[in-house]
Write a structure and sequence with these properties.
Radius of gyration: 37 Å
Helix content: 40-55%
CATH superfamily of the largest domain: GAF domain
Largest sheet: 7 strands, mixed
CATH architecture of the largest domain: 2-Layer Sandwich
CATH topology of the largest domain: Beta-Lactamase
Number of helices: 15
């Protein structure tokens, strides 16, 4: 018996083999199918995918053989990897290299051997695809050709397996990065919302006092800056969900004219402040209903119009809407927003829909988040729509949007496109003194809520931790309880769950900076009646209180 010498490129060969990360892995069906087919084609009882490492030959697939490995010194494959073509031994007992080899003289009695080297390239031979018989024999030309083809397929499987594992690792890494980004955004959102609640709430409180106009203008600037930060937080969350594709489409039938009327009223008021003109040209029948994601469509048209208004210091902003009917039920919704702003340079235009691309021309007082147009682009991709931009420096810009929709006409006397102008926020009317609990470990947050409630008939109790909050709720009868979610001692969700099923309990408000959609759903599911994100909006609070007043006057 002769032991095969080491290949000249043994170090590189072993490095390539280990790089596949395949040694000592479980059997895999795709390799077992190769060996089964090789045995069938060559009419051989044993077929192996054999890989040679430093000391052994290890079988990735072992058809007709129970062993998973043998010593390298005894391996026929150690000889086979020294050549480039089929290594064929018709009768091992007559070959000096294998006489007295235990694999020949004892089980599995390798008498006939045919092995094709598994080569990553012309030089790197990892092992073989081989067929074995316990009697002398030959292969016909067709069998040899098929064995060579199966050898090539085995090499492809080895490479595909490595690529698959690499992609799986990259996928898991990307998923971890996405989860980390989501957690980071959620944490930042929470940490920013708490101080924003104090900033915006205090600015609202100051505006309700008698102060000179100069100080009032400073307060308005503070409030505007706070609202920009809030928009940035909201846009970051929205963009993150769009990039993750976790913002699924929610299609519903809605009345287009009603949405546009609210939109029209809002921007007429906004443009009056800037002393520019706003005009909506709605060419869609008032009886038209659309089937699409209403929230995403509104986000697209509002973001584009808000951008146009922000960047236009004189002249006008116009919005044109029409429906291009393709069939009796399918159509293209065309939205065209045109402004007389400063226009967009070609350099900026090419980067317009990138994240954080903040374009701030002369005349724009407060910059935005740089995310609005990114949200528009991703939302349109989800809806199957597209957007085109036309612009000329000094003359303005046009944004042309096309969105495929399903449409129908329906007469409904309860719907009207005439929406009344927004009224001043009205106080809800209660005919008794409300016993209210405000639970928050942040004193300024409690002060803001107390300020918003001061015009109502209330008797307010305050707590700054979960333990005292639970005790107060158990020992006293309250009409309404505002509970912060993250308090020391006990969280607001734990307290809400403790009241589950009880009839004589207060109306529970969840007051929190945890505003990711999944967080909101979990919080409400714990037993809260209302979700009130920080920073608190007085109008939203009064709306909820109005609903309560109707049920519990």
């Amino acid at each position: 018996m002769l032991i095969a010498p080491l290949p000249k490129n043994e170090a590189a060969r072993l490095l390539a083999l280990k790089g596949l990360e395949i040694l000592d892995t479980p059997e895999e069906e795709m390799f077992d199918e190769i060996t089964s087919l090789a045995s069938l084609i060559c009419n051989a009882p044993i077929s192996l995918v054999s890989l040679i490492d430093e000391t052994r030959q290890w079988f990735k697939s072992h058809h007709g053989l129970n062993s998973r490995e043998t010593p390298r010194s005894l391996a026929f494959c150690s000889h086979a990897i020294l050549g480039d073509d089929l290594f064929l031994i018709p009768n091992a007992k007559e070959d000096v290299r294998f006489q007295n080899n235990p694999l020949v003289d004892e089980a599995p009695n390798v008498i006939f051997y045919a092995g094709i080297p598994l080569a990553l390239d012309d030089q790197i031979k990892l092992g073989t695809l081989c067929v074995i018989d316990n009697k002398p024999r030959e292969l016909n030309p067709e069998q040899i050709q098929m064995l060579k083809l199966l050898g090539k397929q085995t090499v492809r499987l080895l490479q595909m397996r490595k690529d698959r594992d690499r992609l799986e690792i990259e996928k898991r890494s990307a998923e971890r990065a996405t989860a980390a980004k989501r957690d980071f955004i959620a944490a930042i959102s929470h940490d920013i919302r708490n101080p924003l609640n104090s900033l915006l709430g205090m600015s609202e409180m100051i505006r309700d006092t008698e102060i000179n106009p100069t100080v009032l203008s400073y307060v308005d600037h503070i409030k505007n800056a706070g609202e920009v930060i809030l928009h940035l937080v909201n846009d970051t969350i929205e963009l993150s969900r769009l990039e993750e594709s976790s913002s699924s489409l929610i299609k519903e039938w809605f009345h287009l004219g009603q949405c546009l009327s609210i939109f029209d009223l809002f921007f007429i008021q906004e443009t009056k402040r800037k002393k520019i003109e706003f005009k909506l040209n709605n060419n869609v029948s008032d009886q038209t209903f659309l089937l699409s994601d209403k929230r995403k469509l509104e986000k697209i048209i509002w973001n584009l119009t808000a951008n146009a208004v922000k960047f236009t210091s004189k002249g006008s902003v116009q919005c044109f809407v029409d429906l291009e009917n393709k069939t009796e039920s399918n159509a293209i919704l065309n939205i065209h927003i045109k402004d007389t702003g400063p226009g967009i340079s070609p350099e900026v235009k090419n980067k317009l829909f990138q994240k954080y691309n903040e374009f701030l021309p002369e005349g724009c007082e407060i910059s935005g988040s740089g995310l609005g147009l990114s949200i528009v682009k991703l939302s349109l991709e989800e809806l199957g729509g597209k957007i085109e931009v036309e612009s000329e420096l000094g003359k303005g810009s046009s944004f042309n949007v096309q969105v495929p929709v399903v449409w129908k006409k329906e007469e409904n006397q309860n719907l009207t496109s005439e929406i009344k102008p927004k009224q001043e926020t009205t106080l809800p009317e209660f005919h008794k003194t409300l016993k209210i609990l405000i639970a928050d470990d942040n004193e300024l947050n409690r002060k803001v809520l107390r300020s918003y409630l001061k015009s109502l008939p209330t008797e307010i109790t305050e707590t700054n931790n979960g333990i005292d909050t639970q005790r107060e709720l158990e020992n006293s009868q309250f009409d309404i309880a505002f509970l912060d979610i993250e308090m020391p001692g006990k969280q607001g969700t734990e307290i809400a769950k403790s009241f589950s099923g009880k009839t004589n309990r207060p109306v529970l408000f969840a007051c929190t900076g945890l505003c990711m959609p999944e967080e909101k759903n979990l919080i409400l599911a714990s037993g809260f009646d209302y979700f009130m994100p920080k920073p608190y909006l007085k109008e939203e609070l009064y709306l909820h209180l109005g609903e309560i007043a109707e049920k519990r006057p």
